[in-house]
Write a structure and sequence with these properties.
Layout (H helix, E strand, L loop, with lengths): L25 E4 L5 E4 L2 E3 L4 H12 L5 E2 H9 L7 H16 L4 E4 L2 E4 L7 H17 L3 H13 L12 H27 L3 H14 L4 H13 L3 H18 L6 H11 L35 H12 L7 E6 L6 H11 L8 E5 L10 H11 L11 H12 L5 E7 L2 H4 L10 E6 L10 E4 L5 H12 L1 H6 L1 H10 L4 H13 L5 H8 L6 H4 L4 H12 L3 H10 L7 E2 H8 L3 H13 L4 E4 L2 E3 L2 H14 L2 H26 L5 H4 L13 H10 L1 H9 L7 H10 L2 H5 L3 H17 L3 H18 L2 H18 L2 H17 L3 H18 L2 H17 L3 H18 L3 H16 L3 H17 L3 H17 L3 H14 L5 H18 L3 H18 L4 H7 L7
Amino acid sequence: MDRDNGPRVRVPEQRAPEKPGTADALRFTVLGPVRAWRGSELLSSGSPQQRALLAALLLREGRTATASELIDAFWGEDPPSQALATIRTYASRLRKILGQDTLVSESGGYAIRTDRAALDLTLAQDLAGEAEKARAAGDRCQARTLINKVLGLWDGEALASVPGPYADNQRTRLEEWRLQLTEARLDLDLEVGCHAEAVSELTALTAAHPLRERLRELLMVALYRSGRQAEALAVYADTRRLLAEELGVDPRPELAQLQQRILRADEELARPADEPAPAPAPLRPAQLPATVPDFTGRSAFVSELGSRLATAEGSVMAVSAVAGIGGVGKTTLAVHVAHQARRHFPDGQLYVDLQGAGARAAEPETVLGSFLRALGTADSAIPDTLDERAALYRSTLDGRRILILLDNAHDAAQIRPLLPGTAGCAALVTSRVRMVDLAGAHLVDLDVMSPEEALQLFTRIVGDERVGAEREAALDVVAACGFLPLAIRIAASRLAARRTWTVSVLAAKLADERRRLDELQAGDLAVKATFELGYGQLEPAQARVFRLLGLADGPDISLAAAAALLNLDPHAAEDLLEALVDTSLVESAAPGRYRYHDLVRLYARACAERDEEPVERESALSRLLDFYLATAAGVYALERPGDRLADHREPTQYSGLTFADRHSAQDWLYTEANSLLACVRQSSGAGAVRRAVDLLWATKDLAESGANSKQYEAAAITMRDLARSSDDARAEGRALITLTNARLVAGRFDQAERDAQRAMRLARAVDDPLPSCWAPNDLGIIALYQNRHAEGEAYLEQAIANFRADGNRPGEASALCNLSRIHLAMGNTTSAVALAQQGIDIYDELGHALRGANGRYALGLALTQSGRFADATEQLHDALAVFRDSRQRLWEGMATFRLAEVDLAAGLPAQAATKSEQALAILRGIGGEWRRGNVLTVLGRALSEIGQPGRAQVCWREALEIYETLGSAEIETVRKLLVPTLPG
């Protein structure tokens, strides 16, 4: 018998079922302790025998129970001599509590008269019936919601502590019903694509009910759909062995058939058996932007592209690529053609701006994730790698007729993974470059408009009356625009918005621009000349904002950051920015946030290079860097009171924001993450590198969040290289520590060690206390992970001495907690507990919430090895709550994993398996393969102990492959676990 108590359905705080309008009515529960309420008052239901009578009457749902039936329910075949009198006594007591109208006597027996909604069991039955109807009608989400409500009515074991054979039988019946409901809900989970989330719950349930084949079947399907085919097959092997040993029977035919389908890699098994598509109902995306109402000309191109797209209904996948200079109207033409072709693609249309004209084009894997979601794929079913996403995308499109508009592409390499793979679909691509290397594509070169088309477009926007009165001036305007559609649209829109201007006024304003016609013929310069029209209409203060704001690299910018860059009061900055929004030169991404279209940003920077002195451009970016550093340092100080970064960082001349609490500070940090890291990467000036490195140091939490880890590491590499090329040993040393931190998070310990070693040498050379303290601390952690304990102990003792010399008490606490883990690995559990507690005491004294959680994590490990499992669980749960609150996904996953280790050590393998599965899900994409191998090893141990050795072997083999690839010290440990199955 498993030592676990089995899975528990997590339910909200138990309340009596309520009926609208009956605040003082009686209400009852039997799906848990037998209870009675009058309104919100819990009534005394007396002794266990008296509750047994109440339960027996409630379970008859208003029908009369005779005295003999009740005696039999209470005592079975051996009632006492005074049984009838006892029943009457209990009935009399209950009547006083419930009232004469509720507990009635009739026909020699008793009954409870109450509404169906007053009893949780009847309410559950009604909800379950509604769930069955919803499922039959195809509304799986509603059915799932209703079943969850039913399960939420349970409060532990039904009829808890109620004696008697009748209660025993009913308890068994209700528990079986509860399991059936759970199976139905899990079945629905799989149908709506929540297979990855279902694995951990099914693992626990199969451990608690090892002979229940339906649960095993659901677990096999969930594992298979999660890409864990070997584990799914191992479940079958474990089940067959267990049934043979316990019952002497084979698995039922359905389970054997499922095994065969998994062996064949049956594609149909990847979706519900009764549906032709992965989602309950295929989604029909309609993502095309609106076509412009004044689309003009281009009739030959419209016909040519429309004919090509129509061929997608036949045997050839159609790909058309429209190329041309910026502003020539590629997107407008493509959107117009796509709308006309919609009837050929009844299953939907996808659209994405690939940002190919910007410095950082959209990543194909990101676009594929967005497309898969639009096509109905659940987040949990979207794989991590580009190749896997592309393959799933092509499979999802197979058999459907969908048009994909890929706008503003950088090159052919960017769009190849985004192309459909079968007939019936088509792709329409726009780009500044001709895609001669895109095999099989129909290439279209889009030139400027003819003079007639250009004048027609101008007239449609400005109006016949104004243009008709000044036709020659209008021709001068479109000629000055180089017949470029975007330039014409901007000019015409400005004229239409200014009723006091004549067409001649606009033509005169554009006259000087005609000297730049040669530039209009040269690629992006055409776009610059186009936007010169709008730029020339700005007031001097607006023009300055437009120029300087375009210098910042981030995807967008907040009002506060913009005010810092511009050296303006936030209110004045907001007025100028909103004026630019009105001119369409700047977009408002969200309240208080602003961004440029990528082409407009290029033009704004050209204006800054032309119209601003280099010192002013450098000063603007310096102020932005100061703002980010000052604000991030404040966030860092809130998270780490007493840390010495504030004393050792580079000074700033521009102040930052302040925050009332750590939560608002964290909100700012994660909202600004992309802009912060972009600012770091572009800070290459002589006076900026040190501040940029300190900004990286102050935003260390981004590396551990999971969401920004890769971008953070890339920025750290950039700053290391810049510092090294400028021969700035101090900046390089600090950059190397930030890079060490990023690589520790990623599990690349050899690289991290090289970086930390060099950082320590540089720190000694320039006497920089920050890396002098943190480099040996990090080297101690690396030595711990690589089982070099004596070396790690020496590093950490050095770190403690350096932190104390610098007066850095939080750093000292960190090193103490890390030293605790070294002592633990060396078998010194007593000193390990003491060291971790010393660290926690320092953290608590200083008010460190997040770092205090790291200390409790270390203490939890030491307590686990000391055999104090309850204390270890308490410490790790406290740490886990803080990690979740602080958005530290790496540490959330690791704390969950350590809780699994506690459960395993405490003899609770089913709970350990559940937590290990949860840890794997949390650590997906962060933490590196070494940590994944550790979790898989513990998961295998837990599965082995709950009677699933096949799955355990699969987990251990995967862990062994990881360790062998990394050359990790854990290889031999896992080999010993696999001894029965390893050759030789």
